[in-house]
Design a protein that fits this description.
This protein folds into 2 domains: about 100 residues, Roll (Urease, subunit C, domain 1); about 300 residues, Metal-dependent hydrolases (TIM Barrel, Alpha-Beta Barrel), CATH 3.20.20. The protein is built from 14 helices and 16 strands. Helix 3 packs across helix 4 and helix 5 packs across helix 6. The longest helix has 17 residues. The radius of gyration is 21 Å and the shape is globular. The model has no long low-confidence stretch (mean pLDDT about 95). The chain binds zinc ion. Zinc ion (ZN) binds next to loops.
Length: about 400
């Protein structure tokens, strides 16, 4: 199949004007100028016209299970208040509500150009009831032991059941020890051991709020008091920052995908500086959720200067207005005006592909890569150059009119 478009934006190589992409099966075979890629005899040709053809977007952090909770919780006065609120809402949700939420979340993500999605999953038992997803999906099994300490056997058995339940070419699994305030060091280490054995990815929420830092660094604050009230052992409080605590105890390590890192302290930056490029974790920043909670400013420039691979995600609809990654990029652009449109697009393509160990496979348009592609219209701007084409993509607010996942056209 030959796809032709006004501009191809591979992101890992320069843009191609009047370009064409050859797809065979699930893979991209060739990328070049329309004039240089002649159609084979009988080959299907898809003319995308005045469009930019670019890699499908990758959402590195969300919770599809909360996709029916848009505007359900007004911006809270504190992060702890929100945690209490969502816990009480979660207790009222039945299996049908969760399944509906997941389907709606998938549909919304797809409409806005997401072809790969990383979703945390708090109700893994329901996954077998879902139809095979049309989007490439990483389910991260949420692990929490704040109320009851689990044994290693329980964790490994739970995780293995989870991994073995679906064999779908577009579905993969990872582990998500939830956060340092809800998962013990033991649970983090068990997750790490289990993931290493099974070649799984690991992710966690770290340094999301000021209250999390207060709890770990100062043994005080609303989150501390709330969790102490639940009976959580608090001997890990008053010793270090959340990131410092996890890293120095080998609970998280290189290659982990850390969501948020919103409230980092000078000691955290010093620690990151000592790690060296090969030992750094990946980071997911969620601009809309960040603004909703009014977290301290995200240290984009500092973290990227230290060499951290920064991805952008949406978080859930319980703290963001939409599952549009392009909308997240526009928010990031407002806070980081120095980033070029290509830099912005890289945070939802090249960067998450690297974090998911899919470099060269996803998030780019290259020979050999998986054929996950989207087209964005260049309405009324036939004379735009490559830079302006990238700008037009970031600025695009509509639904995506054309999408291919794994070589199959699913939106047209
Ligand atoms: Zn999250």
């Amino acid at each position: 199949m030959l796809l032709r478009a006004r501009t191809i934006l591979p992101l890992n190589t320069p843009a191609v004007e009047d370009g064409a992409v050859r797809v065979e099966g699930t893979r991209i075979m060739e990328v070049g100028k329309r004039a240089d890629l002649a159609a084979h005899s009988g080959e299907e040709i898809i003319e995308l016209g005045e469009s930019v053809l670019l890699p499908g977007l990758i959402n590195a952090h969300c919770h599809l299970e909360y996709s029916t909770l848009r505007h359900a919780i007004a911006p809270p006065n504190s992060f702890t208040e929100w945690v209490q609120r969502i816990n009480s809402i979660k207790r009222q949700l039945g299996p049908e509500d969760i399944l509906t939420a997941i389907s709606r979340g998938f549909a919304e993500a797809q409409r806005y150009g997401t072809t790969s999605i990383c979703s945390m999953v708090a109700f893994p038992d329901l996954l077998p009831q879902l139809p095979s997803p049309e989007l490439r999906t990483w389910w991260f099994y949420e692990m929490i032991d704040v109320r009851h300490r689990v044994t290693s056997e329980e964790v490994v058995a739970g995780a293995l059941t989870f991994f073995n339940q679906q064999k779908d070419p577009l579905t993969q699994f990872g582990l998500n020890p939830h956060a340092p305030y809800t998962a013990s060091l033991l649970l983090y280490r068990l997750a790490h051991a289990c993931a290493s054995q099974n070649g799984m990815l690991l992710t966690s929420h770290v340094a999301e709020s000021i209250e999390e830092t207060e709890m770990f660094a100062g043994a005080c604050g609303a989150l501390h008091d709330f969790l102490e009230g639940l009976g959580r052992p608090m001997h890990d409080c008053g010793l270090d920052t959340p990131f410092g605590w996890l890293w120095r105890n080998s609970a998280v390590g290189p290659d982990w995908i850390l969501a948020h890192l919103n409230d980092l302290h000078p000691s955290d930056f010093s620690l990151l500086e000592t790690l060296g490029k090969e030992r750094l974790p990946h980071v997911v920043h969620c601009p809309a959720s960040h603004a909703y909670f009014r977290h301290p400013p995200f240290a984009f420039t500092k973290l990227s200067g230290l060499g951290l691979n920064i991805c952008v995600g949406t978080d859930s609809l319980a703290s963001a207005d939409s599952l549009s990654l392009l909308s997240e990029l526009r928010m990031l652009q407002t806070n980081e005006p120095g980033l070029s449109p290509e830099d912005l697009l890289a945070t939802v393509t090249l960067a998450p592909a690297r974090a998911l160990r899919q470099e060269g496979q996803l998030g780019c348009v290259s020979p050999g890569a998986l054929a996950d592609l989207i087209a964005i219209p260049l309405d009324g701007c036939a004379e735009k150059n490559a830079q302006q084409a990238a700008e037009a993509c970031v600025g695009y607010k509509g639904w995506i009119p054309w999408m291919m996942v794994n070589g199959k056209i699913i939106v047209t």
